[in-house]
Amino acid sequence: MKNDYVSDIHKKDKLILHPYEDLKDRGSYDRKLIVKSDNIYLYDEDGKRYIDGPGGMWCNNIGHGNKEMAEAIKNQVEKMDYCSPFSESNETSAELASVLSELSPGDLNTVFFTTDGSTANETALRFVMYYNNILGKSEKKHIITRDRAYHGSTYLAGSVTGKDREKNSFDFEENFIHHLGSPNPYRRKDDQSVEDFCKEKVTEFENKILEISPDKVAAYIAEPVLASGGCIVPPKNYIKRFWEICKKHDVLYISDEVVTAFGRPGHFFCSQDEFDIIPDIITTAKGITSGYLPLGAVLISNKLINQINKNYSMFYHGFTYSGHPASCAAALKNIEILKRDKILEHVKEITPYFHQKLDRLNEIPIVGDVRGVGLMAGIECVIDKNSKNPLVLDMAIASRIDKESLKLGLIIRPIYHICVLSPALIIAKEQIDDLVDKLYQAITNATKQLEAEGLWSK
Ligand SMILES: Cc1ncc(COP(=O)(O)O)c(C=O)c1O
Questions:
Q1: Of 138, 169, 202, 421, which has the most beta carbons under 10 Å away?
Q2: By alpha-carbon position, which residue is closest to atom 3 of ligand 1?
Q3: How far is it, in rounded angstroms, from Cα 295 to Cα 85?
Q4: Are the beta carbons of 89 and 113 closer than 8 angstroms?
């Protein structure tokens, strides 16, 4: 692209306050401009190709540049661009609701459409409060969540998020939200087995409910795999045990499948298919349209809805773009492609190869843990493999790896000392080889820099 055009765009881009932008650096550097996308790749203003390691933001499931998606969105807009979900409906959002209720587990058949994952979680949390108010349980408002969880950037979704609260200048709801420890088995005590670690977490949860009182605990919200927290896969049985405890104490289980639904671990929804639970509410977004258009959804069980129906009250909650027809058309086409092209089967088939290749990264001295499920992975860097002390270095190690990866044509998602990956689900074996080779090289290069700067030694 022409230089003066590019510098003009960079200048205009500095007018944007980007998500998670550090204001002290604001305007001091040029962000990469992405001008083209195709398959698992993004291309910058110089035509350089990058593997899109995080699949956008955990959302690009069917791959970039899909012409059928473009056609489906265009057709919908040409036929009917928008009508108010407050007063009318449309065939596309109704069709999608029907498909979602078919795909979801149990009796989660009521769909509330939102615009994204944050508004899906905000809706789920507000729904739980509304539900308890209607049932006359106005004291039952407390929500239990976990450190390192990420549930979004609206007020309640941000409050149940467990990342960075201590470094954050925002206000959070603190009166009725409680955070448990993160279930990262890599971070268990040295002499503790994974089973004992799991038991400890389960006990912590039940004790927390008893401490607050079951009459006051409304819900537990959890991602099956903590995505932005560093791709943390809880120990086996942890999820099932938490769900059982929720049932025992009449606490609703909200499963945040914003990342894990629509194929990432190889299922449309993984709560039941991977973890054998049927939550009361599932929230989803991202992969529902593979990121082609914004959309979120809250799936609520019939059991909850039927209890409310008997005690009528208006659901005073909605968004102008709840179930936007173009987004719903994108979701329907996305689901059709996932099914027709057997993409979930591909995920299940290629997952062992992906993890086996990534395991090679364990050879690198600063790599402490390589983990994941399906096509999502986290690589945690440490000062040394024995102490497991996180290699934080002013939060810079993953950013250094990111910089080195970019030079090699790979985008990763750096989270302090953890690199996360969630490539498009259509990724082929040769592309996995290429991704892992580039990441291996990038981590090695970043390690050499640390050594050269005297910040780390073997
Ligand atoms: C598990 C989870 N829940 C919710 C969200 C928030 O979704 P959104 O950014 O679409 O609002 C995210 C975003 O990364 C997420 O990973």
A1: 421
A2: 151
A3: 14
A4: no
Cα 449 to averaged position of ligand 1 atoms, centre (Å): 33
How far is it, in rounded angstroms, from Cα 180 to Cα 59?
A: 27
Q: Is 57 exposed, middle or buried (0-12, 13-18, 19+ CB in 10 A)?
A: middle
d(CA 122, CA 282): 12
Pocket test residue of 258, 290, 298, 376 for ligand 1, highest count of atoms within 8 A of CB: 258
Q: What span, in angstroms and rounded, lies between the C-alpha atoms of 154 and 292?
A: 22
Nearest Cα residue to 121 out of 240, 227, 277, 23 = 227
Contact 288, 295 (CB under 8 A): yes
Confidence class of residue 60 from pLDDT cuts 50, 70 and 90? Answer: very high
The preferred substitution site among 151, 231, 269, 288 for testing ligand 1, maximizing ligand atoms within 8 Å of CB, is: 151
> Among the listed ranges 75-79, 165-169, 235-239, 431-435, which one has the minimum average pLDDT value?
165-169
Query: Which structure tokens are listed for 298?
Result: 């809250």
Q: Is 90 in the pocket of ligand 1 (CB under 6 A)?
A: no
The residue whose CA is least distant from atom 7 of ligand 1 is 117
For residues 222, 226, 229 and 231, what is the CA-based torsion angle, rounded to 10 degrees?
A: 180
pLDDT at 454: 85
Please check whether residue 456 is in contact with residue 366, taking contact to mean a CB–CB distance below 8 angstroms: yes
What would the two tokens of residue 1 be?
């692209």
pLDDT tens digits for range 283-312: 999 999 999 999 999 999 999 999 998 887
Is any atom of ligand 1 closer than 6 Å to the C-beta of 280? no
pTM of whole model > 0.85?
Answer: yes
What's the gap between Cα 449 and its chain centre? 31
Angle at 327 between CA 99 and CA 375, to 5 degrees: 70
If DSSP codes are grouped into helix, strand and coil, which group holds residue 368? strand
Output DSSP code: residue 232.
B
Atom of ligand 1 nearest to the CA of 294: 10
Partners of 372 in beta bridges: 377
β-bridge partners, 297: 113, 284
What torsion, rounded to 10 degrees, do the Cα atoms 199, 189, 255, 290 define?
-150
Q: How far is the CA of 20 from the centre of ligand 1 (A)?
A: 13
Calculated CA dihedral for residues 92, 84, 119, 209, nearest 10 degrees = -90
